[in-house]
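Request: When convenient, would you put together a sequence paired with its structure tokens?
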Amino acid sequence: MQLELLLREDRFRVVDSAHPDGHAWTLREYMDDWNKEDLAADAKRTGEEYDLLPDEHAVIEMVHDWHHRDRISVTRDGVIEWRPL
């Protein structure tokens, strides 16, 4: 429930290896960055085609999946934090 509320806010913060101090995103900004940077880099590395995230609902589903698989957590401060592999 906390994750859903966080994603519905105007901006949410993510802490990851690229942003160790955190970075604030809107869902649209996160989706655009994921499509342009992360998926493109994966495709270049693997040589496989990829499907772009079509809308903000797809971003929410993806983040919920990461949370379900324990790849991310939500801190007490309301920050999405990637778990180390």
In short: The two ends are 24 Å apart (CA to CA). The mean pLDDT is 87. The chain is about 45% helix and 20% strand.
